[in-house]
Design a protein that fits this description.
The chain is mainly α. It has helices at 14-26, 32-44, 62-70.
Length: 71
């Protein structure tokens, strides 16, 4: 199973390109696409990692950890 990425051109002003380039360097992003994705995820409040995203789960108690170490 492979994903085919078809490049698309997006027209932006010179000033926007300069801002994208600045953010690309600051965010250590590999591409403008990556910068845009990060900005969208940040704006939408979507975690870049799903680790810790289930708010119903509580942190492990010391009892829980002790039981896990017995395994």
């Amino acid at each position: 199973y492979s994903v085919i990425h078809v490049p698309t051109t997006v027209q932006v002003s010179e000033k926007t390109l300069q801002m994208l380039n600045k953010l690309k360097a600051e965010m250590h992003a590999r591409s403008h696409d990556e910068v845009i994705k990060m900005l969208i995820l940040e704006k939408e409040g979507i975690p870049s990692s799903m680790f810790g995203s289930n708010r119903r789960l509580r942190p492990f108690s010391s009892k829980d950890e002790a039981e896990l170490h017995e395994l």
